[in-house]
Design goal:
GO terms for molecular function: transmembrane transporter activity. It is found in: Cell membrane. Its main location: membrane. The chain has 450 residues and is mainly α. The chain folds into 2 domains: 188 residues, no CATH class; 261 residues, no CATH class. The longest helix is centred in the last third of the chain and has 39 residues. The relative contact order is 0.12.
Amino acid sequence: MFTLALSSLRHRIGGFAASFLAMFLGAAILMSFAAMLDTAGGSGVDATSRETLTTMGAVVGGWGLLLVMFAVTSTLTLSVRRRSAEMALLRSVGATPGQVTGLIAGETAVLAAAAAALAIAPGMLGGRMLLELLASTGQVDESVGYAFGPIALAMGISVTFVAATLAALITARRAVRMNAAAALGAAAVDDRRLTKKRIAAGVAFLLLALNLAVVTATVMKGKGSDAMQTAGQTSIWAAIGLAVLAPALVRKAAALVAGPLERRGLAGYLTAQNLRRHTGRLAAVVMPVVLFTAIGTGTLVMQAVENDAMSAAGLAKTNEQKNIETLNFVVIGMIVAFAAIMLVNTLVAATADRRREFAQTRLAGATPRQVLDVVLLEGAVLTVIGVLCGTFAALFTVLPYSYARTGSFLPEAGAGIYLAIVAVAALLTVATGYAAARRTMRTPAVAAVA
């Protein structure tokens, strides 16, 4: 199966591009931050600089694993779904479930190894830029020398490989369950219900977020910026929970908007049908929108609330508080940028997978303009779903932290930040989907169907 995996990669380079990009970017970001741990272990590093560097390096590892796993899972799921009939045919000619799983895992392992190797150079550059940022803000002594060593390499390679492997195993579970007939049906209609395990996982993440939100509003009230230790995590856990439940959320939304959409002519009718029939594919697009909106809004508004609270109290920021602020901005910048890239990446992969669908629609009588209208409507609906879910997840951070710092659940700051994040999410989702669809339809309809 490993030999077959190598052959599959050679003949489907384009189909694996989205997953490869997710692994490459994840590994580069992880190595950049992990290099701070190598730097902290160097000789002549003072205690304050070492603490800052260690915090910067350690805080990203766990989140990096989760984010890379989600990014790879969303793109890998699209790739495997496109090949569901192929996987079922392998089963029908004698391949065992373990062999099919080994094929998917082997393909992913090769991609992960290549992505991690190519990420070393940008990881080194990113780590140096991060150290220069910390030195320029006075949080690390300018005499501290940069080091990129075994910790950065081990962390970047291992986390990327583990995340990719977990994503492959999760994706492979569905592929090995179906026979050929079921797989062919699944390729046409992807509206399967969530498993009990997936529902339980999503609910568990939401309950964890709720627990941390309660702790922030009660135990951490009156403890100043220390409340960030619990509040900062809540929007991430809530966003992950909602992302896990994304297919069900898309299905519920489709039921609500199907009627109004069908009254908007052919484009609206086709959009409603796609929302009903392809919830799995569309949920893969909603996931990065949720993460982008939730994490960006939660962390940036939380920092705005903290800045206002400090100003109202007439207090100057201590070095520790400056460290926390820089950490928030750097980490949130990394996470939001990664989520934005993955949103674009997933949209391009999902749209490219619809080349045959677009061609069949055009051959049935729809004009290219009508097909593009469908893509725009879908993008608008998915943006609304993702933004609403992301906003809900962000509230798990914003409301309890505002109460803990100001005594009021509704913060006075952050409206502009939220609107900017929503605007970026909408622009990325709609514009990327539209541009990818136009590019996909350059192929003549007859050639695309053939």
